[in-house]
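Hello again,

I reread your note about wanting to compare the complex against the isolated chains. To keep things tidy I'm splitting this into two emails, and this first one only covers the full assembly. Below are the input lines as submitted, including protein chains and any nucleic acid or small-molecule components. They are followed by the predicted structure of everything together. The single-chain runs will come separately.
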Amino acid sequence: MPDTLHLAVALDGLGWHPAAWRLSAAEPSAPWQATWWTALAAEAERGTLDLLTVEDSLAMQSSRPDGPDGRTDQQRGRLDAVQILARVAPTTRHIGLVPTATVTHTEPFHLSTAVATLDHVSGGRAGWRPRVSATSAEARHFGRRDIPPVDPLRLDAPQTAQLVDDLFAEATDVVEVVRRLWDSWQDDAVIRDTATGRFVDRDRLHYIDFTGRWFSVKGPSIVPRPPQGQPPVAVLAHVPAAYAFAARQADVVFVTPADTTRAVEIVAEVRAAEAAAGRVDPPLRILADLVVLLDETPTLARRRRDRLDELAGAAYASDAALFTGSPAQLADLLTDWHRAGVDGFRLRPAVLPDDLSTIVRGLVPALRDRGLFRTRYPGGTLRDLLGLPRPVNRHVAASPA
Amino acid sequence: MPKQLILAAHFPGVNNTTVWSDPAAGSQIDFASFVHLARTAERGKFDFFFLAEGLRLREQRGRIHDLDVVGRPDTLTLLAALAGVTTHLGLAGTLNTTFREPYELARQLASLDHLSGGRAAWNVVTSSDAFTGENFRRGGYLDRSLRYERATEFVRTARELWDSWHPDAVLGDRAAGRYLRDADVGAFAHQGDQFDISGQFTVPRSPQGHPVVLQAGDSPQGREFAASSADAIFSRHSTPEDGRQFYRDVKARLARYGRGPDDLKIIPGVTFVLGDTDAEARERAHHIRRQQVSPQTAILLLEQLWNRDLSGYDPDGPLPAEDPQLDDDSIIKGRTRLTDDPITTARRWRALAEEKHLGIRDLVIEVTGRQSFIGTPEHVAESMNHFVQTDAADGFILVPHLTPGGLDEFVDRVVPLLQERGVFRAEYTGTTLRDHLNLPAARTPSAVAA
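Full-complex prediction:
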């Protein structure tokens, strides 16, 4: 079914709309409970979705880009996303689990072993969205380096541009180290050879000896190569610098077109970035992000949006386009964008669990009717779901046959 | 009611205690192995599951050590997954403070405590070794003398972060549109020699308030750290005499910190071998020791004491005539040496080998790693209970020699006997690990402020 599309859901607290918690049937503190996440994952798996993502940050949610906003009327606080999805893993069987984890103040070694372990405990269903942290608020939580406050109105100021370039260059190094560590064990490193008393063949374990501007990492990993070899890396990208980062280091890119025209343009920009990077890996899976607010009829959906905006005190604005309407209308839009070259979608439910339920019970059947979405899981890893082959270990590929 | 035992299950580690060559030995990395051991421990109503940590593969003579099990999961990720397949079992993980920062680790541990319904525990270790540091941003920056300074300040800082959310911080008043009670929820500021951090912590107060804190160091500094900061000690005093002395020493330190003797549990790591008769158990114990000490392993263990390349020696031949080398540069990287006084120990080993006519391998089998409890289930249950009732410990962290079935027989045959004696729970009576361990509740932030 080459024409089918990929479908992901992005989970964040009680939903993406700032007033989601006011209308959700769930308890305001539901996101601190494991059952909240396992129920959402089960629902997404009922819809045979490719994967779910869980948002994360090392700072409190805020309506300001540079630090806490002191508000008490919106949902605040969140749990570690890797931990959430590790907790979800044994309760699910098919769906991909893609946590967000910050690369800026954290250790590449820990990130690598955490995602590798998520892959082991989920039987090959882990992915990872590396996130760059550019706020001075987060830097102060670690106290190890200064990140100057960024003026959100002057993002093109030279020192800001330099900072962003540096942070993305560091992120590139982090992903490089994480990936090298995943390959630092060959798949057949454990030999359990009783004759010689050797548990591993150390010639199949490799130092990575990475030295960069920000850190050096020796290796090898402490964790054997993950079941997928290389769990998929997904990058959320809004600008050409991020497309370039994705083209070099990612398997999946989440993009944010405002309409069909922009979708066509962004697909072209991503493909151009791949060419510029000399990418040899399979092409990026391009998933368009959409915030979705669904109801049986367009009128009911609009009413829900108006009610949410009224409770929030402002019309909702997001980096991604906001879709308000019926599942059938959304299916039309996704069909259009899919024809424009987008491989699939990451839907951000405005209110949880409501809009996820409508995705699963309304949108998914509509897409299946059009022959655009799977009716059952084929069985396998997240890479399998995404149509990505399992990569050969670089150390095996490099050695003579 | 007699004193109740604490029982914990240690996932078999990456040293020669773990026998991988046995036909019954399973994977050290498949999640199914962890599920098996955790569910067995929970079937036996154990207090907690325990996971060790290593952040660099061990090396000997400059090469990756290949004779023992190699490879393990990331501690926190694995424990969160186990929370999904267990309901009561505590989940304890070893997490190094040298290569982590308090904001991130406190956040992860509080998350684990939420996601497990109050079952998280943290075994605090601190390393000064530059060898492991090569895998991390800061390298081997920590001076050995500052290990406990860092550990103490790390734990104190983590507790400040855990206390930064009042239990009632989330108001959730939909009608009034008030999610938080106060805008400055999670606010913290810590200034010290190790950490200078401030901002807002993002995780609401977890079910236990503070995850249970374990500590494993044995030096006077380590004991003091435990007395001031920990809820339990993973000790290595597995003989009754050693145990009682250690127990008295540590418990006596508690009053200085305004704590009672029951506020710090002493739980040595121990091994066991069961048999239908004591003779059969002894035979099995000897068989396991031979599995644990292969000819190659015997030479490597000897090298750890001698700190020399002994690869030319015959495992069945005599011990080296020369004394150990006392260089600071250890032949083994990534684990601690066997003793602080290699010369004396080597002379003792040589004398013993001569007296009993033992070759290298048999000598190593004799002097290292003998199992703590060997006998029939009745005998082992009685010995363990006596150990605890005579205040040599408060319970045990059992280290099975096989993955993943090494605890099965203990749970099936010894636990019921302890339950019959009324010294171990027949059912869980609480939900959190603090409940199981009978530890006082973590002070609430308001009480801290008062």
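For quick reference: The first strand of chain B starts at residue 6 and ends at 10.

B.
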